[in-house]
Amino acid sequence: MTEANASKLIDGKSFAEGLRARVATAASRFKAAVGRKAGLAVVLVGEDPASQVYVRSKGKQTVACGMSSFEHKLPASTSEAELLALVAKLNADQAVDGILVQLPLPDHVDEQKVIAAISPDKDVDGFHVTNAGRLAVGQPGFVPCTPLGCLMMLKHRLGSLDGLDAVVIGRSNIVGKPMAQLLLAESCTVTVAHSRTRDLPAVVRRADIVVAAVGRPEMVKGEWLKPGATVIDVGINRVPAAEEGKTRLVGDVDFASALAVAGAITPVPGGVGPMTIAVLLRNTLVAAYRNAGVVLEKDAL
Ligand SMILES: NC(=O)C1=CN([C@@H]2O[C@H](COP(=O)(O)OP(=O)(O)OC[C@H]3O[C@@H](n4cnc5c(N)ncnc54)[C@H](OP(=O)(O)O)[C@@H]3O)[C@@H](O)[C@H]2O)C=CC1
Ligand SMILES: Nc1nc(=O)c2c([nH]1)NC[C@@H]1CN(c3ccc(C(=O)N[C@@H](CCC(=O)O)C(=O)O)cc3)C=[N+]21
């Protein structure tokens, strides 16, 4: 890669390392002040290999930051009632500050019901309708980790986002919609595109900021971009690699063609993914401070 192109890379991996270091410092202060470690409970139902990788990674990083990790691995046959009972137990557990139920859940479980059962004060994923509502009206609450990580990288790279044109591709409750809310709160002019959007390339062409959260490998092409645009690639897609039987990870953006046109871009892997986990740890620590009634120093995280 040329030096000019290398300087366009937004290094989510190293950004995440920095955030985790601040989390670790605040976690050790929390322990000194409260007399226990902050704790994150992660619930995984079933054997999806990708989910297992993320859950293992979350557990390791939680412990590395000086927090307690409680992992609950349940078989795919777990009933909705059993899952709701576990969530109720975690809600009541004083050692648990944050609860994450890994999605997707098996088809026989109503995801919305499970999310609704999590105490909004422990909902470090920010998926509970109470936290979605708080984000929508501008009240403090928990913001979903992936879009918050994207926003942190954007602000770090661009400074003020005031007045910029932002296009978010995707309108899911966990990425697209909260991303749009965050950008709106930063005074961007926000367009949310989705599968019914007409002439997506023309919509993307207007954008100073493009956030792609679609789940379609390499869909967004460099030719769609306004020269100099900042591109955040949320997509995590496993596709067949050149070597027989192997796979590789690609984003929702065609990285090679986008790199030539963009002003800045996140790679996959090493972009949004690592930030998502670091923000989860950050949210857990914020939850711990709030739930313990201790004030976290401003700008500590
Ligand atoms: N890095 C990370 O930490 C995370 C990464 N991801 C990744 O981000 C991606 C998106 O995830 P998620 O939001 O959960 O996905 P969803 O499947 O819930 O949402 C995808 C969105 O993309 C839209 N879409 C689908 N096809 C097109 C198209 N051809 N043109 C325009 N829009 C389209 C859909 O539109 P419609 O609503 O009309 O169907 C939908 O709104 C995935 O690759 C996922 O793996 C997700 C979470 C965390
Ligand atoms: N309740 C819930 N909360 C989530 O936040 C949640 C979820 N469910 N279900 C699945 C998605 C996906 N997700 C990722 C986290 C980290 C990486 C990550 O670290 N990716 C590495 C690569 C990892 C690899 O090689 O597979 C990277 O992009 O560099 C990716 C994806 C969180 N999600």
From TrEMBL:
Protein name listed in UniProt: Bifunctional protein FolD
Pfam families (alphabetical): THF_DHG_CYH, THF_DHG_CYH_C
Listed GO MF terms: methenyltetrahydrofolate cyclohydrolase activity; methylenetetrahydrofolate dehydrogenase (NADP+) activity
Catalytic activity: (6R)-5,10-methenyltetrahydrofolate + H2O = (6R)-10-formyltetrahydrofolate + H(+); (6R)-5,10-methylene-5,6,7,8-tetrahydrofolate + NADP(+) = (6R)-5,10-methenyltetrahydrofolate + NADPH
Purpose: Catalyzes the oxidation of 5,10-methylenetetrahydrofolate to 5,10-methenyltetrahydrofolate and then the hydrolysis of 5,10-methenyltetrahydrofolate to 10-formyltetrahydrofolate.
CDD domains attached to this UniProt entry: NAD_bind_m-THF_DH_Cyclohyd
Keyword list, A-Z: Amino-acid biosynthesis, Histidine biosynthesis, Hydrolase, Methionine biosynthesis, Multifunctional enzyme, NADP, One-carbon metabolism, Oxidoreductase, Purine biosynthesis
Segments forming domain Tetrahydrofolate dehydrogenase/cyclohydrolase catalytic: 10-125
Sequence ranges assigned to domain Tetrahydrofolate dehydrogenase/cyclohydrolase NAD(P)-binding in this UniProt record: 144-290
Record text on subunit structure and interactions: Homodimer.
UniProt: NADP(+) binding residues: 170-172, 236
Enzyme Commission identifier(s): 1.5.1.5, 3.5.4.9
Lineage: Bacteria, Pseudomonadati, Pseudomonadota, Alphaproteobacteria, Sphingomonadales
